[in-house]
Amino acid sequence: MASQPIIEIKALEKTFQTKNGAVHALKDINLQIEQGDIFGIIGMSGAGKSTLVRCMNLLERPTAGQVLFDGKDIARLGGKDLRQVRRSMGMIFQQFNLLMQRDAESNICFPLEIAGVDKQTAKARAKELLELVGLSDRAHAYPSQLSGGQKQRIAIARALAPNPKVLLCDEATSALDPTTTASILSLLKDINRRLGITIIIITHEMSVIEQICNKVAIIDQSHIAEVGSVEDIFFHPKTAAAQKLVYPDGKKSEPFSAQDSSPCYRIVFDGNSSFEPVIAGMVLEFKMPVNIIYADTKNIDGKAFGQIVIQVPEQQALRENMLRYLTRRGVTVEEVTGYVG
Ligand SMILES: Nc1ncnc2c1ncn2[C@@H]1O[C@H](COP(=O)(O)OP(=O)(O)OP(=O)(O)O)[C@@H](O)[C@H]1O
Ligand SMILES: [Mg+2]
C-alpha cells in the first residue's frame, strides 16, 4: 500500500477581495506531496505560488478546499494541534527575514524560545544546526555582517530548529548569485537526504527545479497546468506552460532560427546515450543533412540529459523514416512545429 502523502491539497481555492474586485489567486488546486519529496512549484510572477505555500501552513486561510497535513485537515485544527502542525513546517524566504538585533545563534534560538524550550537546550540545538549549515565559526555574527548566502544558511538553521517535517522555501535563492544558489540548493538536498525532511521549493527558475527537485508542479494563472516527475516533464512537456519552461534556453515564445518551413523535432537523450553518433549515423544512412538548430546538456536531479532541436527534410516518407531510425535508437522524439518561425 502506498504511504499517505505528508501534504495533500484538495480542490483548494483562494480569492482575495480587493477594492478593485475579487482576485482569484488559486483555482482548483490538487496536489499530493509525499514524505521525502523535494517538490518544486514553478510559475511566473503573480501565478499564485506564494499564496499556495501560505495556504499550506495556514498563513492564508483557503476560501474553499482542504489542506491535509499527515491526513488531518489543518483548517479544522485549533490551539495546540494547529501550533504543532505549524511547528512541523519550517519556512525560508527570499529576503531571509532574520532579526537584525540578534546574532546568528540567537536567531536560531528564537523559535525555540517561543516554544518554551530552556536556554541551554536551545543553545545546544543552535550549535548543532550551525554545524549542519557550515557556519559554526559565525555564531556571534550579526546579520549585517553576513553575506546573502550565509544569511540564508542561518535562516535554514532557524527553520530547522523546531525539528520540522517539512521545509517550505519561497524563492529562497532568488536573491543569490548562481554559485551561492548552487551551494544553498546542495545544502537543502543534503538536509533532505540526511534528515529525511520533505522540501517544497517555490521558484520561477527551471534551473532550480532541475538541480534538486524530484517532482514539479507548474502553476499558471492560478491553476496547476501540469504535475509530475521532473524527468517526465522534461521528456514530455504536454502543456504550453511546461513547454515554455523546458524548451531550449528558456527562449519561451521566441521562434527558433529555422530557415524554412521544414518541420523541427526536439530529441531528448538520457545520460547513457550521446547524440553525435545517433545524428551522424542517421545522416550517413539517409545521405541527407539535417540542420541542428539547438543543442545542450543538462543535469536533472543528478542525472545527465541532452536535448537537441533538428530540422529535417520536408518530404514525408523520408522524414518518417528518419524519425523511425531515431526512435529505434531509444531516444525520445517530439515535433515542435509550434516553435518554428
Ligand atoms: N493579500 C492579498 N490581497 C490581494 N491580492 C493578493 C494578495 N496576495 C496575493 N494577491 C494576488 O494574488 C495573485 C497571486 O499572488 P502570489 O503572491 O501568490 O504570486 P506569486 O506566484 O508568488 O508571484 P511572485 O513570483 O511575483 O512572488 C496576484 O494577482 C496577487 O496580486
Ligand atoms: Mg511569490
Detail the topology: elements first, then pairings.
Blueprint: E1 7-18, E2 21-33, E3 38-42, H1 49-56, E4 64-69, E5 72-73, H2 79-87, E6 89-93, H3 104-114, H4 119-132, H5 148-160, E7 166-170, H6 178-195, E8 198-203, H7 206-212, E9 215-220, E10 223-229, H8 230-235, H9 240-246, E11 264-269, H10 275-286, E12 291-300, E13 303-311, H11 316-328, E14 332-335
Parallel strand pairs: 3-8, 3-9, 6-7, 7-8
Antiparallel strand pairs: 1-2, 1-4, 4-5, 9-10, 11-13, 11-14, 12-13
Helix pairs in contact: 3-4, 3-5, 4-5, 5-6, 10-11
Residues 16, 18, 23, 25, 43, 45-51, 204 line the site of adenosine-5'-triphosphate (ATP).
* Percentage of residues in helical conformation: 25-40%
Structural class: alpha/beta
Average pLDDT confidence is: 90
Order of helices and strands: EEEHEEHEHHHEHEHEEHHEHEEHE
Question: What's the number of helices?
Answer: 11
Large-scale geometry: elongated
Ligand species: adenosine-5'-triphosphate, magnesium ion
* Spatial separation of the terminal alpha carbons: 49 Å
Number of strands: 14
Q: What is Rg? A: 23 Å
Low-confidence stretches: 250-256
